[in-house]
Design a protein that fits this description.
The chain is an alpha+beta fold and about 190 residues long. It holds the Pfam family Peptidase_A8.
Length: about 190
């Protein structure tokens, strides 16, 4: 089910024209619309945030014992202190990224007031986005950098190192792009 964004003036949503959204046999078009995140959101958010912070803590405690090959020729554990953003761009601007990340996180929370939280998919995507943003912002505040430790490579080609929070953000973003493209194709 695609997350349903409801207009205050219409019972239709942004993704589907009038009458094509899923409705339950209740007393009106918005009767099945939940206004607050469900237990799935809160449980997944907490679990992913703790997984992210726990793995980063383990990496920091290992000190200089890296790289550690998990799947030779494909996957290493490393310890990278990233003060930039994606791919290490704009390094050294930690406080700027704390501000921008916090603004985006708060804007997302504010915008979530108009989201229909009755869909599992909505709860999962929102939990992935929130956990990812909160995990990396927490790193910047606590350490002054983001801890990246997953190194995927083939031969001499290495994808920039990343972490659980980055994975959450990428999965949610790709999921939304796929779903919006699918909805447009209909």
């Amino acid at each position: 089910m695609i997350p349903l964004l409801r207009s205050k003036q219409s019972s239709s949503n942004v993704l589907f024209p009038e009458g094509r959204e899923r409705r339950t046999p209740s007393s009106g078009p918005d009767a099945s619309c939940r206004r607050l995140p469900g237990p799935l959101y809160w449980g997944l958010l907490l679990g992913l945030f703790l997984l992210d912070q726990g793995t980063k803590t383990l990496i920091l405690r290992q000190g200089e014992n890296f790289p550690l090959s998990l799947l030779p020729g494909f996957l290493n554990l490393v310890s990278v202190q990233n003060t930039g953003i994606i791919f290490g761009l704009f390094a050294g601007q930690n406080w700027l990224w704390i501000g921008i990340g916090s603004f985006i996180l708060l804007a997302g929370l504010w915008a979530s007031r108009s989201v229909d939280w009755s869909s599992r998919e909505t709860n999962v995507i929102a939990a992935l986005l929130t956990a990812g943003a909160a995990g990396n912002i927490s790193d910047r505040i606590a350490h002054g950098f983001v801890v990246d430790f997953i190194d995927v490579y083939v031969g001499s080609w290495h994808w920039p190192s990343f972490n659980v929070a980055d994975s959450c953000l990428c999965i949610a973003s790709l999921w939304m792009i796929f779903r919006f493209a699918l909805a447009r194709a209909r």
